[in-house]
Predict the 3D structure of the following.
Amino acid sequence: MQRFLRMITFPELREGLGVTLKWFVRPKVTEVYPDRRPVLPYRTKHRLHVEIETCISCGQCEKACPEGCIKVIKPPKEVFKEDKRPQEFFLSLDHCLYCGQCQDSCPTGSIHHSDEWELAAYSFKEYLFDKETLPYDLEKKRYRENFWGNVEDKTGG
């Protein structure tokens, strides 16, 4: 008889609907991401930005990086006396831990984290930067905006 009453009254179904209704009337906590950007905590580390103009090619950032994401190539000695900027600077953000050790070790403050945290890309090649394509302009909302429009046509056509 108890089994028959249980089949007719569906206590598990009522319990499940009760939980559903309880959560249905509570205030929503979902963030509307594209419309309202979340407020991230202070000192959250985001995309690295490098100012080549103030870099002195010391290589401290390269030594401090635990993943080896940074490669600094110094200019020749005769050029280095007048201009200490690196001949080549390579940055790979696909393995970056965003630990901030490169930023802490830089004596001139050329490397710093920005507030740009949307780092999604279609290809890992979009995370590889050289001296010309480094993300350094903090005034632009997107540092690669209209990127292909700025590429020179080397085919001559």
Residues 11-25 form the longest helix (15 residues). The domain at 48-138 is CATH 3.30.70.3270 (Alpha-Beta Plaits). The longest strand covers residues 88-92.
